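Posting this for the archive.
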Amino acid sequence: MSTFLYRIGKSAYNKPWYFITSWIVILGVVLALIGINGIHVGSEMKIEGTESQKVLDQLAQELPEASGGQASVVFEAPKGERLDTPERAALLSKAVNDVYNLEYVINPAKLAAEAAAAAAANADQTQAAAADSGQQQATADSSQQQTAADSGQQQANAAPFGPLMDNGAPVTGVTLSADGSIAMFQFQFTVQQMDLPQEVLDSVINTVTSVEQGGLGIKALPSDTLSSKPAVGATEGIGIVVAAIVLFITLGSIVAAGLPLLTALLGVGISVGGAYAFSKFIGMNDVTPALALMVGLAVGIDYCLFIVNRQRRMMLDNGLSAREAASRAIGTAGSAVFFAGLTVIIALCGMLVIGIAFLSTMALVAAASVFVNVLIALTLLPALLGLVGERICSEKARKNAAAKNKIADRHGFAYRWAKGTVKYRWLIIVASVVILGVAAIPVAKMEMGIPSGATANYDTTTRQSYDAISEGFGEGFNGPLLLVARPNAADGKVTQEVLGKLVQGLQQHDDVMIVNPMGINQNGDLAIISLIPKSGPTDKTTKDLVADLRDPQSAIAQASDVNIGVTGFTAINIDMSAKLAEVFPLYVGIIVILSLIILLLVFRSIIVPIKATVGFLLSILATFGITTAVFQWGWVHDLLGFDTGGPLLSFMPIMVTGILYGLAMDYQVFLVSSMRESYVHGHKGTASVVSGYEQASRVVLAAAVIMVSVFAGFVLTHDIMIKQIGFALAIGILIDAFIVRMTLVPAIMAVFSDRAWGLPRWLDRLLPNLDVEGDKLIAELNAQEQHTSVKAKAKVANHH
């Protein structure tokens, strides 16, 4: 491996423009594809195979008009005033009708007229043959109207709200609170929000907010389902600035510091741009490019930093030319970069076995970002180093290195830290385990879900809309459930009598506020019901209600002899959290096994991979514990820019575990490969630990600070999902790099000493020698130098 990469590095250094031009062409192709296909991202997160998604898919086939996404808008009157004055009611009615006339929005009045016309036409064509059916349909219509009327009467008696009236007629889809200060407009699209063009959402928002220009003091608050804010803002620039400062301090040169930044930005430009270019053909969540940007920036900077640092050390310490040092750095440090990147990619691609489409897309895009950055580090970086040449090391750096080389004992802080860690290894091991164990305690109380309006900041329309709905109508109106009732018998029918009995049974449930029958399909084997719980979307009571409704043995289902399916945004979130919690252990098991195999090949050791994995488990538990305390319990929320704690993002543990495992193994490879290199080159016992730590700790420290800075930059974004992921990754890297890799790992390595590199003979024969530390490469180069020297001496002798 190291010999192969050495040749690639030398070719790129010698012919830089071939490689540079190739990457510029790739970037141009990506930009051209974006121009042709456009950018198509959404906010929907669906999980195939869950109960709620099955119901939604059935509706899409049998009753498409009921399967589209739902949205709501809240209108507020000035304090102490009402919305049902003639002027305000007329203004709201106009805005509502304008929304209904927009493309992709279902118009209930139009649907009712079309249904009546179709029923009349069908009755004329089948008078004799379907007399009984016609009578039954008429009875059904009458009964349905009566059921709806009864339900409406129940609502009027049970809840302090009613319809908004305009000129004596109710405004379709609008409900008015008891004090008349708040009106809620609920409507439905023909498709899910993810499939809606952005201009449609913009048109809806512009239409409903037009009431604010009516001069009547009305305020319009669109819900979060209508939000069109981008997931990624400019806050990641802060992380890049910090990374630039750290690079300059570490490498001591603006030129050297600029190369990792340049290559990382090109890498994320190609990978994230490529994801956008193909977003027309794949369903991509708006978190996906943000995640790829996070990971791509972090690994892109770190990998190039590792290689450039190795080149500079070879030039300053060993006196090699820039050309030879760059080639050897690609051969040695490049091997570590290759396997570190491979570990990250495996950890991300392990999500594919879960079988969740949006997570698979996120994982593949992030893995592609890592893959592109590895290729850039191994091909484009040496080409750029070829253009820079000897300027990669300034004259000042050369003089300082020469002065230090003359000093016998030139050990710095890293050496003293390593010696202290080795000396007090058992104390450090116990202290590290205790600290991480205490930090992990909140994990036991961790709750999963999807952040909603209840957790948005107070100054956002999303939170104001949520609070207004809760105040005016009840918290359950923020999370309505859609019920689909089917007869248990194969040839059964959902008659109006069955529907009425089901509605009455549902209304008697302790956590049900409103039950509204929405109709029966033409075949009579499917009924749709809208149900408003008393509790909020993320409350445990609502989860229990969904479970009760789905239970075929419940008193409600038994009394009406139907099977009840539950869907809607709230039910989908409940199912998503349950599904992800179910597959999480499987995912962790897969990535751990695969990564153990890679680490076994890289280090040719059994103890090192096991130690690395156990250390990661400690760090990931501590990470989730701190994240739970911050985002669920609300600790230091003011410092991080959010107002209210709430459930953690349901797919965050899987996503963060995959990324952190890969990145943690990066530091493991960088640090322990230096220890193994010292061991292979003659340092025995704890001396190899100290020597390897001294060589690699500076660059690992810089890489960790850069990664933490990049991820922390995303904590400043307004999107709570990106904020949670960025925080978990930042705190996870902080814990794993500084407590586990740079403190706990050398202590454990000192305990095992040379035994850490032991391998059974039968396994040693089976495993290929990948030569990650470059021992074979160095031996081959030394042999070539000796051969060249002998030939030169022979030539001189012959000349004389």
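Residues 569-603 form the longest helix (35 residues). The domain at 69-111+151-228 is CATH 3.30.70 (Alpha-Beta Plaits).
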